[in-house]
């Protein structure tokens, strides 16, 4: 039988460090929380190589007196609790006394600190838990902690770290959350020598949201402020129009501490019920304040999980606060109109006064040649094979028919109400009902086609076929998309896979990506929400790259690009779509799995009318 041995102190320290220091972001979280507890109103965080080689946290807080500097690096040494009763009412972010000794056990640490009452500061250097230098130092009031070579003495931990860019994104997320929870503190984040994030500490949460996530997220936020008993809820939330494809933009703080709690999340999302589409999630920053004794933060070493003594009371308070804010919000979603498409008027140079219809017809062939390669406009008329532009008092006002989808158009003479059946083509167009369903006849069978589902499947198939040979369009104006740090990291890790779907997405830094090209059929206005959905999907499905990932993106691109139920479409468009569906056996179900077309035989119809 194996004997029981007491572990050496250094081994015990390494095991304890593993519970507190998971990655560079864990170090930054512990050090910045200590800075907040020290009363700082200005905090600077600097990292290099994702924080693996270098982390520096500087604050202007109260500092540590010289006699306590060494003690601060002893296990379970803390100034924040003194008796067992203090555990029932913890108000500080840190309290266990585990952070500094755990960090020092797996890295090389240098601390420089000074209090307002001391003439000289103190410098202490520790490597792998061993003190190598202790001396006086000239410095300002506050504390600077430098952590180098994280996990240098525990190489087994190093192999579980991600690439520098991913680790840096985790650190950035930590700084952002702390800045959100304390808008009264000025934060500065420096990454590999570049300042990527800063707040001015003016106490304005909207300004912090703008600094962290940009205009798109911060401009449409709704203020929340409510109290129920001894529980108060405040903050900013997204409007139902701006909900996202993941929970990546939900930030919950309890007494200033960033937490995850199923009760709060459920209350938050239930308040949006019947206001958002299925699969969409609200975002925002919620502060929940309640007596310290009503919440237990001593649940997990990371201190991200909490328990409430009154879960029902928390649910009701959050639900009521969010629901009230939504009910008071009377804003209407604002739409951006697309840029006006060019017409023949834009290409005629110096028209003379006697510009007649004949002149227009003479120039029409040239105009078509100019326009076609630019905008893929089809010049097929709804009512005939010969196009005759309408001319009013101003001969330059020429209206072209709408763009035909799919792009392959026929130039046959097609009446407005029906498409004739010919020996070469047995598909006869009948009409459309509810601006949703196409009615057609094919070899004696009555066909009812869902135009959105049909077009969605056709585009889906085209995207998959074009995977290896292009199928994307270069944007005249690249589009930037700001994401949460978790979403941003998920996108950066999958850029090659996203590129296969027709998007040219690159890292733009600071939680932002830039899109330079997109699938051909996608409108510019759909790029930002679609990239957000892709980011949310990748965040929820962090597995190896599979065809499932690609199909999901193809599906969402196709869904956004396809014509919609309720759209007004020309007879020619509907006829071409009906032909494409009927003649392609691969277009039978939309990517959701819903049927694209229903067929009714002549015999079934005649049974309904008692003819057979």
Query: Averaged pLDDT, please?
Result: 79
CATH class designation of the largest domain:
Alpha Beta
Uncertain residue segments? 334-342, 346-424
Our measurement of the CA-to-CA distance between the termini, rounded to an integer number of angstroms, reads 89 Å
Q: What is the CATH topology of the largest domain? A: Ribosomal Protein S8, Chain: A, domain 1
Q: What characterizes the major β-sheet?
A: 8 strands, mixed
Determine the fraction of residues in helical runs and give it as a percent range.
25-40%
Which percent range describes the beta-strand content? 15-25%
Number of domains: 4
The CATH architecture designation of the largest domain is 2-Layer Sandwich
Q: Quick one: how many beta strands? A: 22
Broad shape = elongated
In CATH, the homologous superfamily of the largest domain goes by the name: MutL, C-terminal domain, regulatory subdomain
Describe what you observe in this structure.
This protein is an alpha+beta fold and 612 residues long. It has four domains: 197 residues, Histidine kinase-like ATPase, C-terminal domain (Heat Shock Protein 90); 109 residues, Ribosomal Protein S5, domain 2 (2-Layer Sandwich), CATH 3.30.230; 64 residues, no CATH class; 205 residues, MutL, C-terminal domain, regulatory subdomain (Ribosomal Protein S8, Chain: A, domain 1, 2-Layer Sandwich). Helix content is 32%, strand content 22%. An eight-stranded mixed beta sheet has the order 5-4-3-6-2-1-7-8. A five-stranded mixed beta sheet has the order 9-10-13-11-12. A four-stranded antiparallel beta sheet has the order 16-17-18-22. Strand 4 and strand 5 form a beta hairpin. The longest helix is centred in the middle third of the chain and has 19 residues. About 14% of the residues have low confidence.
């Amino acid at each position: 039988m194996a004997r029981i041995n007491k572990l050496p102190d250094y081994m015990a320290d390494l095991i304890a460090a593993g519970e507190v220091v998971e990655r560079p972001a864990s170090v930054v979280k512990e050090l910045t929380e200590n800075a907040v507890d020290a009363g700082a109103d200005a905090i600077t965080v600097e990292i290099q190589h994702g924080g693996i080689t270098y982390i520096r946290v500087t604050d202007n807080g109260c500092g540590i007196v010289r006699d306590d500097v060494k003690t601060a690096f002893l296990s379970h040494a803390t100034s924040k609790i003194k008796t067992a009763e203090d555990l029932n009412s913890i108000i500080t972010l840190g309290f266990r006394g585990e952070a500094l000794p755990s960090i020092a056990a797996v890295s090389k640490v240098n601390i420089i600190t000074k209090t307002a009452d001391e003439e000289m500061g103190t410098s202490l250097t520790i490597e792998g838990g061993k003190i190598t230098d202790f001396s006086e130092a000239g410095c300002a009031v506050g504390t600077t902690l430098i952590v180098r070579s994280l996990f240098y003495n525990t190489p087994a931990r190093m192999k579980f770290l991600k690439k520098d860019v991913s680790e840096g994104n985790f650190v950035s997320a930590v700084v952002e959350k702390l800045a959100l929870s304390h808008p009264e503190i000025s934060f500065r984040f420096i990454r590999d020598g570049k300042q990527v994030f800063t707040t001015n500490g003016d106490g304005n949460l909207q300004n912090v949201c703008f600094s962290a996530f940009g205009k798109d997220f911060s401009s449409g936020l709704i203020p929340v402020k409510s109290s129920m008993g001894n529980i108060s809820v405040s903050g900013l939330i997204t409007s139902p129009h701006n909900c996202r494809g993941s929970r990546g933009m939900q930030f919950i703080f309890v007494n200033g501490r960033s937490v995850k709690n199923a009760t709060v999340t459920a209350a938050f999302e239930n308040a949006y019920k019947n206001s958002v589409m299925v699969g969409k999630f609200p975002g925002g920053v919620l502060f929940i304040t309640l007596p310290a004794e009503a919440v237990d933060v001593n649940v997990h070493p990371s201190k991200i999980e909490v328990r409430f003594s009154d879960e029902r009371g928390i649910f009701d308070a959050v639900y009521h606060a969010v629901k009230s804010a939504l009910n008071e919000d009377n804003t209407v979603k604002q739409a951006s109109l697309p840029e006006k498409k060019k017409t023949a008027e834009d290409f005629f140079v110096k028209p003379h006064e006697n510009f007649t219809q004949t002149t227009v017809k003479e120039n029409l062939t040239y105009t078509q040649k100019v326009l076609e390669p630019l905008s893929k406009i089809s010049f097929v008329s709804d009512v005939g094979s010969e196009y005759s532009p309408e001319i009013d008092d101003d001969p330059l006002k020429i209206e072209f028919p709408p763009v035909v989808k799919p792009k392959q158009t026929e130039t046959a003479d097609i009446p407005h109400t029906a498409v004739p059946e010919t020996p070469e083509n047995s598909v006869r167009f009948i009409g459309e009902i509810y601006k949703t369903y196409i009615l057609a006849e094919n070899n004696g069978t009555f066909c009812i086609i869902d135009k959105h589902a049909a077009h969605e499947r056709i585009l889906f198939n085209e995207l998959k076929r074009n995977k290896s040979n292009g199928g994307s369009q270069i944007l005249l104006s690249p589009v930037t998309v700001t994401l949460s740090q978790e979403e941003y990291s998920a996108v950066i890790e999958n850029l090659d896979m996203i590129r296969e779907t027709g998007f040219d997405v690159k890292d733009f830094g600071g939680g932002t990506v830039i899109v330079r090209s997109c699938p051909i059929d996608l409108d510019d206005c759909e790029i930002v929400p679609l990239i957000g959905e892709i980011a949310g999907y990748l965040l929820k499905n962090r597995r190896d790259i599979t065809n499932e990932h690609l199909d999901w993106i193809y599906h969402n691109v196709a869904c956004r690009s396809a014509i919609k139920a309720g759209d007004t479409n020309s007879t020619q468009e509907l006829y071409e779509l009906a032909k494409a569906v009927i003649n392609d056996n691969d277009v039978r179900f939309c990517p959701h799995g819903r049927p694209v077309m229903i067929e009714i035989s002549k015999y079934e119809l005649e049974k309904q009318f008692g003819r057979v």
